[in-house]
Amino acid sequence: MSLDSYEKIMGSCIRCSNCKFIPALQVKSQRFSAICPAIERYNFHAYSGGGKMVIGLSMLKNRIEYTPDLLKVIYRCTACGGCDISCKFFFELEPLEVINELRTHCVENEKGPMPEHKRWMESVETNHNPYGEPHENRHSWFSRNVALHDGSETAYFVGCTASYRRKEIAQATAKIFDAAGLEFTMLAAEEYCCGSPLIRIGARKQALSLMRRNVEKLKSLGIKRILTSCAGCYSMFKVEYPRYLNTDFEVVHTSELLNAMLKNGELTLSKDVPLKVTYHDPCHLGRISEPYKHWSGEIRKVLSCIYVPIPPKPIRRGTNGVYEAPRNVLRSIPGLQLVEMERIKEYAYCCGAGGGVKSAFPDFALWTAGNRIEEAKATGAQAIVSCCPFCSTNFKDALKQRGESMAFYDLTELVLKSIGGSM
Amino acid sequence: MLDREAYDALQQVVGADNITEEPAILDTYAYQWCTEVEKAATGEEPSRFGYRPEAVVLPSCTEEVQAIVKICNNFSIRFKAHSTGFGVWGAVSGPGAIQLDLRRMNKIIEIDEKNMYAVIEPYVTNAQLHSELLKKGLYHHMQGAGPQTSPFASHTSMIGPGFTSASTGFSGRNVLAVEWVLPTGEILKLGSLNSCAEWFSGDGPGPSLRGIMRGFAGAFGGLGVFTKCAIKLYLWPGPREWRVSGIIPNYEFEVPPYWKIYVINFKDWESFEKAYYKIGEAEVSMMAMTSSTEGLATMFSNTREDTIKKIFSDLMSKAQRYVVVLVAAHTEREFKYRTKLVSEITKEHGGSDLVEIGVVKPLSTSYAEAVRNMFGSHAFRFTSCFQSTHGGMDTISMAVNLAKVNKDIKLKYIKKELIGDDRGEGIWASFYEQGHFAHMEMPTIYDPSSAESCKGYSDYWVECNDTDIKKSLGIPFFIVGDKNHDLFGPHCNNYQVWLRKIKEAFDPNDISDSGHYISSKKYL
Amino acid sequence: MEEKQFLDRLVDIVGQGNASCEPEVLRKYSRDLSLVSPRAPRCVVWPRSVEEVKRVVEAANEFLFSLVPVSSGSPHLRGETVPKVDNSVIVDLSRMNRVLRVDRKNRVVMVEPGVTFKQLKAEAKKYGLRLLTPLLPKASKSVLASCLDREPITMPKYHWDSSDPLLCTEVVFGSGDIFRTGAAAGPGTLEEQLESGQAQKNPLGPTQFDPFRILQGAQGTMGIVTWATVKCEILPERTKLFFACSDELDGLLDFTYGVLKRRLGDELFILNNVNFATILRKDSRSIETLQKSLPEWILTITISGHGKLAKDELEYLEGDITDIARDTQVKLVSKVQSVSGNEALGLLDKTCEEPYWKLRLGGRCQELFFLTTLDKTPKFYNTIKKIALEQNHPLEHIGVYIQPLVQGCCCHCEFDIYYNPSNGLGVDRIRNLSIKAGEALLGDGAFFSRPHSPLSEVIYQNCLPETVSALRKVKSIFDPSNVMNQGSLCFE
User: Fold this and answer.
1) Which of C110, C158, C232, C370 lies at a CB distance of 3.0 to 4.6 Å from C446, suitable for a disulfide?
2) Does residue B450 sit at the A interface (CB-CB below 8 Å)?
3) Residue A40 belongs to what H/E stretch?
4) Which residues of chain A have a CB within 8 Å of the CB of B380?
5) Are the beta carbons of B397 and C199 separated by less than 8 Å?
6) Please, what CATH class does the domain formed by A115-264 belong to?
């Protein structure tokens, strides 16, 4: 994998601008028609998915060099995959792949990432988390009231953000598992960062090193099933680990697990949670959580100049993201009313935090979250619900900064309320 | 590099965040679809990178556009403005020019429901406008370039056939009043806007200055910058809510009552032509267009894979000359009458409805895509690339004749494997205003990554242009730029002389990029 | 001396029998029924071909005389055919009166400037076509001139663009160059174009400008059009006419909007009882009698059925417009007082019988027309009422004609001031009234897109200077020596 392996794809971009908007069939208003926060904020075409494809090609053709302004274009982007989905409504190009590859190229050529990223890369190296927090505090959120089962093949992989910043999510998750009688273990001190922050900013080498270590550890502990309450970790274990390291762990997000538990009667939601909420689809749980399917076959030329893969190549369009499970869970909570925003599921607008934006461009992250909050408010909801500690952090920061009365909950918090549990 | 004083002056106007000289950003404006064809035509290496602008500027309002244009005049800097900027015609056409990206000018200023017009800025997209108009029971003419492109650009500046042309006409005929920053920096307000600050008319007092504005093709940014315009609207024959469910790529659209798609097939051009005229006269169509069998395959498919499958199926033997008609009525009475009439016409001309007999199965989203003008984008599926030759507009008969004449020409290039093999039948035609006018273009697949294919397409395009001249088949779409005008002009009453005079009068300093318009250099 | 040379040249070009400097003849062209001050031309010529027109224009360039094109027969009401400067020659195109082509398949006719509505209606009918006409045009009205003047047509459903029904033209510009606009420009000769299946229908272009739009509304200041193609529609098998009446103009607007949006009716317009009566009756007394018996406002709408399913079509249209009428509290009737729908239909089917309807009440008519939107018409009616009151002009002598245009985007609003010129200070009073009313209407937001005397000057004074400058630039391109209808519009 390298930038030049994407040359044909990059050169196939026709600059149609579909990547700036949600799929055209889904546009229901002008106000909520954008998919790409980057171009929405910065306006130059370079900031769009298509723009970055051109930049990739331009770099390959030695037409440009890395400059501070170019780095801004590359990194003022949450790599949310929105452009990718919209493009794939008509085409079979890979804008998100190119964006990721461009970042990798940037880092491998020692031109990036941003200084703020370098700081937490060091922290991942030394503290095994990007927050600069001591590793020994990783498990400090854990309450002894929850039973752990050493030797279980199922591990709850908490993730850095839930461990250090959104402890309420980890706590609620563990309590719900416990209440449902789920037998699971945790890695505790053996849990290191999943590698998501590294891979998203293009530090692929470092990410792979960490990922290899994690795989070894998980295998040594006999883990076959990974549960996670973090969309970022979910996407890593579901998509990137199998892609690069050929792993075959069963990867389940809490929303999927809770949905299954409710169906099987392992969990009952009895307490009213009288709240009108709207659900925000995290990118990494939704559109970019489809695993890669390796393809092998031949490319056949038909009709003079059309190249067709035989068998057909699978296209990752976000069709199989986790959309219904969290919604089903929310609909099962008594007293809760779920209303939808205009941009949902595979064409949901990003929270603004991912891809290294939260650390390197915090204003941009908050600006994007602010747009999403406006969309949530337009539904009349009292709260936003999501399933990702990173989305959670950014939304909470934005709601506070804006002085909004709207609340934010993780799915697990509402489920915990409904089973009569408390934090 | 721009003169520092000029750059600073521009920066003063728009603010530091809205101007850039960063080469990487500039390259994303230099790169345009179809540049490779223009380059191949001149013997250069086909690359999508054209000229890099010296800077990109993002104005937010008319006053900023005016200030920028005046600075350009002061410093003799050429400029080119675009909206969504889809295609080589949006880019600067030579060195030393700046690009105006009108993205920040994206307001829907007014929707006059009663009098059925909308006033928009350059960067409102078709889908955005459609979604807002629907809420008021209206819709507009969308050009075939797609829902993510700008109706403003099409209405003021660039051609304008669309899939709903049967009922919504042609962009150039849907324009009302316009606000226009001339190349000199003066602001011209057309029609009623000038006289009483209203938008309902673009003509007068006296002669209409729409006469110098766009013609059939549009000025392609070569005569200043349009900053606001009013466009005609139409009554939406459906509910005021756009209901699409499902997951990509298989969405489901809630098809309104009284909508029906037909694919009426005829055995030959003769019966097709007669029936197409009759369908026009019947005044029943929201959409009435034709393409090749390959076009049919891609129109009603959601993926490339599905399209290719259909092409290699027996569809070829079952669809010869067909019309895709969308009947959309406001009442049950209207629907009954219209569908009865369509059936009568079908029977009378020996046609058969491929939908009724199960050969073609429109998806629910086919209805949505028809009215959001998304079918054109399906043509990109094959190689992520296509372009059309010909495009002249006059009558249905001319359109049919054009298709017949072009077949053998196209086959020559197909045989050499330079362009996609559509049996020479690759066409798209729509009629306008219930059959009064029709245009015919030849969508052609080529491989943009192959220098040979780009050159092949370019050679084919040149031969198509020559054929239009030799056989009097109208002036095709892309007869823009000095070279093309000097080629066609002598066969067309030397119109290029007058066009040059207009350029000279309104752009005496030659500041508005004339690469896809005309320069004033030569006089007869 | 120069003048004589010029006049001799003209005779040479058009032939002895087609040029006249006879005082009687010149007097006829020196005035019309408008308020424009009379001014005699030097000569009248009747060219018969585009070549003759071209040579006349070239001569005018050489000798710097003003050419005033005239196509229609009298009466003329607007002053644009009266010379504005002394060195003027009337170019009367009435002898270029061939219907060059009627094309049923493509719903188009090609006509020379002298072809009248009476002539063309009959011809088109033979081929199963009908014209898109202004309201009851005079029999001698030139079809081409009407199109060039952007006269409102009575069927807004078929008015897709403000330029309709004008399509392509052949013109001799003021420079003396012959040009064909739209698809007619080429490639190819007209015959070659016809052979390739064309019909000179597409009015746009060639390429990146629309010269035909510059000719429209120009009142002959850009060039002389020697033929035009004109859009037609299919003659229906069956037609029905309905009226709707109201004492308030407001009461008819929602229905009108409803029908416009759906594109349901063919003819669709609103008249006040004064204009309704002047159209239906021929002498002052009958007009006044009828007018007094009528409600103040009468809307006319026709629907039609075509071809084999004419009956079905008519039924559905009637059903749908009845529903709209019900929803907008309007009652559709087939008779108003003594006037039946069939009688009105019969009138709409023909050109106006003598006397021309605008001359029936008093003998003269000063038209005040402008564009606006339908919803604003009551406001403008109030303005004209106020001015009429102030100027002591009886409301019974002000006709109102409201014509939706461009499928409802805008509206032609016309106030016809009827007067008797032999009543003392009639003409001066009317001029005063027209100017005062025009200024008041301008101030209220009326858009005078077709400036005519006596308001031309004030209309252009009201324009932004950039507009006037742009128009003058255009004029200098197509008529560099300013030989075409000098002194008109905003051109010196």
Assistant:
1) C370
2) yes
3) helix A37-42
4) 14, 16, 90-91
5) yes
6) alpha beta
